[in-house]
């Protein structure tokens, strides 16, 4: 009898051991296939290292498993530390709308100059105009989480900008720097699009290199300069707007010595005024001329055309003055630079 009981207990223990082993194996299989919830990390959460960016920004690392920071501190071109959203969604562009569009970000509002850029007018459809000077009431209605403005706004619109600072953080950008290699990366970093900016720049550099080779083959070491004629004023453009950057930094054509000396004084300068008598000193083998198509500016240019001084310029004698569309060449933004470069190549290589 005792032997039967012992045998029965042994059998039950054996069955229980087998069941326990099966359950343990099943549990191991589940754990292997399903990661622990407490150790899971999203792609966004992995980017917690302290970084220094083109805009002078830094983030503080967060302990593993804690909520990621919603803001970060960046240094603008006024040297101010500005706290901005890590991922701004509603951006106002006092200027620099083209730079935002180039990385796939459409501002919710923009200053008047942004709507004058011929090459981005379609993309600006639906963007609200904030006025010039910026209208604080209009901007308040738009509820921005970031405002990007040129430093000159603080100089010429101090009171409106003081009001805007109460609505959203303002990041100031100076025009006195390279538009493609300085301004553009800063703007892209603000909205988390540094990778897109690097790709845009890489594509631009390939286009620019091809364009330079074409122009070099066509005109060799000929000089090129840009003039704008207005009523009562004649200006020579340097290395920024109205094709200045596109020609001198993009295509890297040679300016006359007098113009090169002015560029040397101010690498990011816009323009300087000369008298009509000085025109031959600043003229070049190829001359880009900017004159509005109607009004007093056109009348002023017609007077210059009649002068012997104009007719004796080498570029005029050789039929090499090139007339630019004022509205098309107006901007100093990166999209205008890239697009007008294509047209300038056609003009210089004909």
From TrEMBL:
Residue intervals of the Fe/B12 periplasmic-binding domain: 88-350
Biased composition range(s): Polar residues: 37-68
Keywords: Signal, Transport
Spans annotated as Disordered: 33-79
Compartments, record wording: Cell envelope
Record field: compositional bias (Basic and acidic residues): 69-79
Family: Belongs to the bacterial solute-binding protein 8 family.
Protein's name in the database: Iron complex transport system substrate-binding protein
Species: Paenibacillus eucommiae
């Amino acid at each position: 009898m005792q032997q039967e009981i012992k045998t029965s207990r042994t059998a039950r223990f054996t069955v229980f051991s087998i069941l326990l082993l099966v359950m343990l194996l099943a549990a191991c299989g589940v754990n292997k296939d399903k990661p622990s919830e407490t150790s899971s990390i999203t792609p966004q959460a992995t980017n917690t290292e302290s970084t220094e960016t083109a805009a002078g920004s830094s983030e503080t690392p967060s302990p593993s498993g804690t909520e990621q920071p919603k803001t970060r501190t960046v240094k603008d071109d006024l040297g101010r530390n500005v706290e901005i959203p890590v991922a701004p969604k509603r951006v106002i562009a006092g200027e620099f709308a083209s730079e935002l569009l180039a990385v796939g970000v459409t501002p919710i509002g923009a200053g008047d100059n942004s709507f004058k850029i011929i090459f981005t007018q379609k993309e600006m459809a639906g963007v609200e105009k904030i006025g010039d000077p910026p209208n604080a009431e209009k901007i308040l209605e738009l509820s921005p989480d970031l405002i990007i403005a040129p430093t000159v706004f603080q100089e010429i619109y101090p009171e409106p900008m003081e009001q805007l600072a109460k609505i959203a953080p303002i990041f100031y950008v100076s025009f006195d720097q390279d538009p493609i290699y300085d301004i553009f990366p800063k703007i892209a970093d603000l909205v988390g699009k540094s990778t897109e900016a690097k790709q845009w720049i890489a594509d631009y550099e390939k286009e620019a290199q091809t364009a330079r080779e074409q122009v070099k083959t066509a005109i060799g070491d000929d000089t090129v300069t840009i003039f704008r004629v207005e009523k009562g004023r004649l200006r020579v453009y340097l290395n920024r707007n109205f094709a200045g950057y596109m020609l001198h930094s993009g295509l890297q054509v040679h300016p006359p010595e007098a113009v090169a000396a002015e560029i040397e004084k101010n690498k990011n300068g816009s323009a300087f005024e000369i008298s009509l008598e000085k025109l031959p000193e600043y003229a070049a083998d190829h001359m880009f001329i900017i004159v509005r198509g109607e009004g007093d500016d056109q009348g002023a240019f017609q007077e210059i055309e009649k002068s012997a001084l104009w007719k004796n310029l080498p570029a005029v004698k050789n039929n090499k003055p090139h007339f630019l569309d004022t509205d098309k060449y107006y901007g100093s933004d990166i999209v205008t630079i890239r697009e007008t470069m294509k047209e300038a190549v056609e003009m210089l290589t004909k």
